[in-house]
């Protein structure tokens, strides 16, 4: 069993682990020949199935195992994220699977030039100019190697064979979301509002906040929350509803004609004032805030609404080539109340 | 809600929610606020256990359109600095719509678009950044006059107060549940019988109060007297950790004393105290209030350009803040406080106090007096 790769996009990898970490502490990392999958299945809340193309993060990637060259690991996201953070200024970083005292580890070897730290580490006392000169001559070429070890657990193929992506029915509405950070700042206010309202009444109900999310096939997204003291809703208009690709839908053009979203197109209006044509879900405000933290990756997000059933978010990571995109899939189930 | 069909009682539109937010934030110390709608604007008032009340008047000048359809003919009520503290227009005429709403919810709504974080974590799409017009150049939403809008509507008694914030392609609608007004009498304040009146800058009062707050005192005492036509004003605090005092010495260049009685002497504008009037200039004025209550007005003090401090013969303190929400437009926020009953008040204090009159020894006299009491 062998795994070794050069990390070429440390920033993306760090942000990715940080946002995944907010949903659950442990991830199932599946290293395959062509892609890398991160899966988080928390006991409660949102599941994430992330499929990354190898180029999105790694370079010179090599994986070998007895089981079709696939390695399954259980990775603690917190320690991995911390290890990656120390590599943010690295000139190069390498990750590999090793063993130490019979414990499997992901070892992160980070090479940095010491010039960044030497101001504080070796105060020169003299003028700043002298210090810089000193760097240029000597310190800039000095390399520091840091090794971070993240203990992991190797998962047998049988263990993970029973894990499948959730099955959902065809969505009623699919829509491209506005920038997630914008969405998050408003949803956070909503959650705060609900908590502020609940404080005055009984304390028991205060812990849960239910956001109502809805969208229609006319470019509208609605987020709302209701408390005793108020009801508030924000409506985004002029968003895009991507067209379905006949090659991706069962039965091709026939399938599209019968697709729920085609029916939803007949209902509702583009100004979002009509009460018809909305597919809505009820989700947990706090959980939603955590999901929104993926916004820092800055990708395009398509939301699929299955009315009163589930909300599925496809977060596409921005890539240079744009050929085989990496996608993070979030499954958020709807609460009945 | 089709306001157009039903001719709502109130429709008010403003290009931003910022002024509203700035004013209402000053009185954000209670869960519920009373709202009264009249011809001149919106009156928000909050009350704390009937010993303190605060109110903010949102004049209709702050809105681009303000349409109030009174349920019954109502004479217009104009407010000026002189009388705006007194809700005399809130006469027993029950036709003026009055209700309660959740104030924290309203404030939270008004800052949905991050109006407050003007300098730090302000997202680029937020609007009404006061700095953005200066620094952001000609292409900010502000300057381009994007369709940013804040619309407040109240349809009919019993319906929610609805606030609609529109910005580019986002529209937020907030319906605040309106509650029956609670029966509460306002704290009586007799403007005809003032014991003390002084006007100063809001920040000076703010500095003084925040200075005193470091010892977390329980009591704030106002001292005022006129000696040799020189006004003297001090704030002292006392609590378990000790006591402290901030003095306002009005001793800049003064014109020769006019022939009027000292109480009416208008000091030059450069003075610390812009106005200083005592009903009885021969004695020392003293009144105490609960410090924690006064502190609730701190937000208003910090943003006010001027504050008028008045105490009536009963000892009720009125703080009236003049707040400039945008260039040239001033609004008023009022607070009233019921005084603490002073147990140790006796004539001896005052005579002792006045007996020590000396031209340059204001502070030392006060200290003597404090030591004697301690």
Automatic annotation (TrEMBL), chain A:
Keywords for the protein's UniProt record, in alphabetical order: Nucleus
GO annotations of cellular component type: checkpoint clamp complex; nucleolus; site of double-strand break
Listed GO biological process terms: double-strand break repair via homologous recombination; meiotic DNA integrity checkpoint signaling; mitotic DNA replication checkpoint signaling; mitotic intra-S DNA damage checkpoint signaling; nucleotide-excision repair; telomere maintenance
Keyword Nucleus: yes
Compartment(s): Nucleus
InterPro entries found in the cross-reference section: HUS1 (IPR016580), HUS1/Mec3 (IPR007150)
Family membership noted in the UniProt record: Belongs to the HUS1 family.
Record protein name field: Checkpoint protein
Organism: Karstenula rhodostoma CBS 690.94
From TrEMBL, chain B:
The keyword Metal-binding is assigned to this record: no
Biased composition range(s): Acidic residues: 83-94, 357-374
Region described as Disordered: 72-96, 248-270, 344-374
Protein's cellular compartments: Nucleus
Keywords: DNA damage, DNA repair, Exonuclease, Hydrolase, Nuclease, Nucleus
Keyword DNA repair attributed: yes
BP terms from Gene Ontology: DNA damage checkpoint signaling; DNA repair
Pro residues compositional bias, start-end: 253-269
MF term (GO), any: exonuclease activity
GO cellular component, one term: checkpoint clamp complex
InterPro entries per record: Rad1_Rec1_Rad17
Similarity section: Belongs to the rad1 family.
Protein name as it appears in the record: DNA repair exonuclease rad1
Higher taxonomy: Eukaryota, Fungi, Dikarya, Ascomycota, Pezizomycotina
